Amino acid sequence: MTRRLTADLWRDLTWVAATTLLAAALSARFDVSEALLGWLRRRETLQVDELPGVLLVLCVGLLWFAARRYQDVRRALQAHQQAESLLAQQLERNRNLNVQLLQVQESERRALARELHDELGQYLGTLRFDLHALAGHDHDGNAPAVPGASDALLERARTTLNHLQATVRTLIGQLRPPALDELGLEAALEQLVHGWQLRLPDTRLELRCADLPEALTEAHAITLFRLTQEALTNLARHARASQARIEVRLVAGQGLRWMVEDDGVGFDPAAPRNGMGLISMAERCDAVGGALHCESRLGHGCTLRAGWPA
After folding, report:
1. Is 286 exposed, middle or buried (0-12, 13-18, 19+ CB in 10 A)?
2. Best label site of 35, 131, 180, 280, fewest CB within 10 Å?
């Protein structure tokens, strides 16, 4: 666009120069200045002879005006090009995010299918075998089973059912935490942190919830829960921290504030990363009108902050 603007400028300047040369040649051929000067002398009382000077000032003013407009148009075009470049970058980023989102969805589906196959499939097979044995058949339902083991089979079936119940409860909790609907955000966060504390005995986890509004919207509640869940997952995978603090509070006049701070190994936020944990967290914040900020240095832990207006 700038190259086209420059070409148009040189074309216009060429036309102006050619017209000026043509006017000079015609004036010299027909003595235009002498004729005009004689005509002006006869009308001295009208001060018409001052008109060339006024026209010269007008021409200079028009040149200045044209130069200013040219600079303004050039700056506008540059701003437009920058906006187009930024838009292209954002579109490329959105495409990458969509691809990564699909990959995460497929990964979650594979993990869920593996859990269903490995856990539920195994326990259901065992339960089926035990029920056939209790009914006097083998696991294929054909040959008689060995009698006299009813109590042991019942106990094993009961244990299998307990495992099935625990597995289903775990899968449901991964898909949608029941405590969030039944007890609210604070209780759901306490349950989440307690579960991670059992898995991370070498890391002291501390949760602080202060002045959380009772009328917190579902979108904000699930966002805060998922942010904490993702932050604790990253903490377990990468941080190698000895302690971490999770804080959720309502600040008067400012809104909701969320923070997770640890004393782990830290990282360089500007360095390229393969995962999309922080990206998905930032997208979650942005979806409900908030913003995520990450502060970290190698060897100095990490602090994640998010906020929503009141």
Report:
1. exposed
2. 35
Q: How far is CA 129 from the centre of its chain?
A: 50
Instruction: Please report, as a single letter, which amino acid is at residue 120.
Output: L
Nearest to 284 by CA among 213, 228, 203: 228
Buried b / exposed e across 158-176, counting CB within 10 Å, b at 16+? eebeebbeebeeeeebeee
**pLDDT tens, 165-208?**
777 777 776 677 777 777 788 888 998 899 899 989 999 999 99
Domain boundaries, the chain: 2-97, 181-308
For 158, the token pair is: 């009961």
Q: Where do the H-state alpha helices sit in the chain? A: 2-30, 32-41, 51-115, 122-134, 150-175, 178-182, 185-199, 218-234, 277-287
Amino acid at the residue 139:
H
H/E stretch holding 302 reads strand 302-308
Class for the domain spanning 181-308: alpha beta
